[in-house]
Each structure stands twice: as C-alpha cells, then as structure tokens.
Specification:
Helix content is 87%, strand content 0%. It is mostly helical and 83 residues long. The protein is flat, with a radius of gyration of 15 Å.
C-alpha cells in the first residue's frame, strides 16, 4: 500500500463503525438534496439503516433515512410530472 492509503486507513481506524456511518449518512443526506438524489439518497438510506443497527442513535438514523428517502421521492415525483 502507498503512504497515502496508509494514512487514510489510520485516519478511518480512529473512528468506530457507528461514527463512520453517522458522518457518511449526514454528508450523503445533504448531498442528496443538492446533487444526484437517486445515488446519494440511497446511500443515505443505507447509512441510516446501518447506523440504526450498530448503535442506539434511533432518532439520528431516522432523520438521515428520512432526508435520503424524501430526496429520492421528490426526484421520482419530478420525473413522473415531466413525462
């Protein structure tokens, strides 16, 4: 592995799995409203689901899933209305 990959791996190993899904879910939930809702919305839903399974943060995971799902639903409504 390169030196850069080693540094990234060390950085990520400092955080617990739940914290990684929390950060990734929050970022993808916000990005789902700005860029490519289908991709980032589904990623936010997945991160929220994994956060719910590996920690006791039920409200936080529900908010992440709701933001991702609402972005995907809004995108689908937009696509259906333009046809």
């Amino acid at each position: 592995m390169s030196d850069e990959q080693t540094r990234v791996g060390e950085f990520l190993s400092r955080y617990e799995e739940s914290e990684r899904f929390l950060v990734a879910g929050a970022v993808t939930a916000v990005l789902s409203w700005v860029f490519i809702p289908l991709l980032f919305g589904l990623a936010a839903i997945y991160c929220g689901y994994r956060l719910y399974n590996c920690s006791d943060r039920t409200i936080t995971s529900a908010v992440i899933v709701f933001m991702g799902a609402s972005a995907v639903i809004n995108w689908l409504v937009y696509i259906v209305n333009t046809i």
